[in-house]
Design goal:
Number of domains: 5
CATH class of the largest domain: Alpha Beta
Helix content: 25-40%
Largest sheet: 5 strands, mixed
Number of helices: 24
Number of strands: 24
Distance between the termini: 78 Å
């Protein structure tokens, strides 16, 4: 008689399930060769979840069940990169790559045999993952290159990233570098949901990935499917690798996904062939790439080549040219902006494939631009994605006209609220605007969203979706209505529970003390953005002084002049402006500006013009501008010969400012150097 198999104990079955799940994850994400269906995989995972719920003492940090379910975090801790996460210098043509090849060979000597590894440049977010004795310890974004954000809580939700290295003898420390990304299909799925909720769709997979990584709630993050490709290492202990190809093989052996399209090239001509191939074939990939990365394969040669202050001399990024497409302008829709301006939006038929996405709509700026280009419905147009992000019509092929094209007719009434449309002219252009922008629902929702932005009134919990809800429900008919909201009113809205209502009300209450500069920036005064609002508040530190100021006095504020002064005067002279000021005061919103404190050590930036690009760790956009001014410097938005420094933060993509600074020989500094200059580090 055959023996009956002894039933497994809970601990044995848990261990068995974990091995099976890890094996199937490896087959799916690393080998791209699954052997069971998603349903069968889910059944295994559910059994493990139930067993661990019955036996909580068996739960371990590396269990597959620990990927999702943690509590939201309060904020992002900072992680110092022991080995900096450097950017890679860009090239845009074969001449750049030939020079790179020549520089490498010159540095290595005439007898050196150089091989290059060519990898796809995934359009995602750079990530560092530290494993200690095989277990995932911490994951961090690139940040400034020296310091990043701890996103471990979200990285654990990515099934492609193993919680434990697949080896019986893991090195004591193994820090993996790679790229987190989303597929085009996932972007389309999430954008369908955004459109159903009347929310703005995400522009591209990189923006969506970056935003998802910065979510505080891992359960929310887990609803968006991110993936990962590993391509390098940071700090390692107890392991020796000699080449990039050997490293990629080791990463795959450890259970980390590596891109299957990497190619080893024996010379620069083979590099050109690989780049040309993927320039054509990139649209066939399920994810976005924006170029190729070329690396010297041999690590000993890399060590000899070394680094500049910011980039390795042994690697180069080859960027693809912006892609253009030709299609028909089938129709034009009109949207109302925060100032009441009507924006014409082109609708294409057929939709045009650009930079990995299908483009059906694109903005056409304003009425003046449409008239200048003489764009007509039925025209054959050239569409381009600027920086592979924002689609725009760049030209009209007039030779393709048949005579059936129709002149674009602007609506007589606002498409959002039905109020009459009027023509508004400036010295250089004109547009059509809603005659009732203060109460126009479309414009008001956009103004609410802008009012609540972090660098303005910083109202936690008030994003685009909530702004639309508040306006469409009738709870908010003007900005002051925000400060009259009650918990009972908010609980009548869809998806609003006690916690969400309290969060919004706390954010609204906290915003009352932001000060005049940030308040002015949030009021959507035409031609008065964040920087100009701050200058106005510094010159007139009480809103009553602004209300009483003459056009001549306003024009003397730095950067204003007669035109901007005219718009400020018109805002505060209008019935709506006077009513708004009175209501804000009555509701207890701070309408004064605190005096600026002098820096503790003089003016180390006196007379210096500084341009900022990228995301900084210690400052938001307003904060860095205020700090530059505090220490005597002048913040500027563009690089020119008058620029003294370019301050560079995290750059997920190429930066035109950085390119301009290099061409002009402008000194480039990082955030640590900047903080040392002003004595804050």
């Amino acid at each position: 008689m055959a023996k009956t198999a002894t039933p497994l104990s809970p601990a044995e079955r848990v261990a068995q399930l974990r091995r099976e799940i890890e094996h199937h994850n490896y087959l799916y994400y690393v080998e791209a060769a699954p052997v069971i269906s998603d349903r069968e995989f889910d059944r295994l995972l559910q059994e493990l979840i139930e067993l661990e719920a019955q036996h909580p003492e068996l739960v371990t940090p590396d269990s597959p069940t620990q990927r999702v379910g943690g509590q939201p975090i309060a904020g992002f801790a900072k992680v110092v990169h022991q080995v900096p996460m450097l950017s890679i210098d860009n090239s845009y043509d074969q001449a750049d790559l030939r020079k790179f090849d020549a520089d490498v060979k010159k540095a290595l000597g005439p007898d050196a045999v150089v091989e290059y590894v060519v990898e796809l440049k995934i359009d995602g977010v750079s990530l560092s993952i530290r494993y200690e004795h095989g277990l995932l310890k911490v994951a961090a974004t690139r940040g400034s290159g020296d310091v990043g954000d701890d996103v471990t809580h979200n990285i654990k939700t990515i099934a492609a990233i193993p919680l434990k290295l697949h080896t019986a003898h893991p090195p004591p420390v193994f820090e993996v570098r790679g790229e987190v990304y989303m597929t085009k299909a996932e972007l389309e799925r999430i954008n369908r949901e955004q459109i159903q909720k009347k929310l703005e769709p995400y522009k591209n997979t990189r923006n969506l990935t970056a935003g998802t990584l910065k979510l505080l709630d891992p359960q929310e993050c887990a609803q968006r499917k991110m993936s990962f490709f590993a391509y390098g290492t940071g700090v390692t202990e107890g392991i020796t690798l000699r080449t990039q190809m050997e490293l990629l093989a080791k990463l795959k052996e450890f259970g980390l996904p590596v891109n299957p399209h990497t190619r080893l090239c024996r010379n620069i001509d083979e590099v050109f062939t690989a780049c040309a191939h993927w320039n054509i074939q990139r649209r066939t990939l399920p994810y976005d790439i924006d170029g190729m990365v070329i690396k010297v394969n041999d690590f000993a040669q890399r060590e000899k080549l070394g680094f500049t202050a910011k980039v390795p001399k042994w690697a180069k990024a080859y960027k693809f040219e912006p892609e253009q497409g030709i299609t028909k302008l089938a129709d034009v829709e009109f949207h109302t902006g925060k100032f009441g301006e009507l924006t014409p939006v082109a609708k294409f038929d057929p939709p045009v494939a650009l930079a990995g996405t299908t483009v059906t709509y694109a903005s056409m700026h304003n009425a003046s631009w449409v008239a200048e280009k003489d764009v007509r419905i039925g025209d054959t147009v050239v569409v381009e994605k600027k920086g592979e992000i924002i689609p725009q019509v760049v030209d009209v092929i007039r030779s393709a006209r048949t005579g059936a094209e129709k002149v674009i007719v602007w609506p007589a009434n606002c498409p959002e609220c039905g109020a009459p449309v009027v023509k508004k002219e400036s010295a250089t252009s004109y547009n059509f605007v809603c005659s009732n922008p203060e109460s126009c629902a479309g414009g008001l929702a956009k103004r609410l969203e802008g009012f609540a932005r972090r660098e303005r009134m910083d109202i936690d919990g008030l994003g685009r979706e909530v702004a639309i809800q508040l306006v469409e429900s009738g709870l908010v008919r003007s900005l002051p209505d925000l400060y009259r909201l009650t918990k009972e009113q908010l609980l009548t809205l869809e998806k609003f529970g006690e916690r969400k209502a309290h969060k919004l009300l706390d954010g609204i209450a906290a915003s009352k003390n932001r000060g005049l500069g940030r308040l002015l920036a949030g009021l959507a005064i035409y031609k008065v953005g964040d920087e100009m609002a701050e200058r106005l508040a510094d010159a007139f530190p009480d809103i009553d002084q602004i209300v009483a100021a003459t056009p001549e006095e306003l024009a003397r504020v730095e950067g204003f002049g007669p035109e901007r002064a005219k718009y400020v005067r018109a805002f505060f002279d209008s019935d709506a402006g006077r009513k708004l000021v009175a209501e804000l005061k009555e509701l207890g919103i701070k309408t004064t500006q605190d005096p600026k404190t002098a820096p503790p050590r003089g003016q180390p930036l006196a007379g210096k013009t500084i341009v900022v690009t990228g995301t900084l760790q210690h400052y938001d956009r307003r904060g860095i501008e205020e700090t530059i001014k505090k220490y005597g410097g002048k913040p500027s938005g563009s690089v020119s010969k008058k620029t003294d420094f370019l301050l560079v933060g995290e750059l997920p993509k190429a930066s035109s400012k950085l390119d301009d600074a290099k061409k002009l020989g402008i000194p480039i500094i990082d955030e640590t150097t900047f903080r040392q200059m002003i004595g804050e580090e």
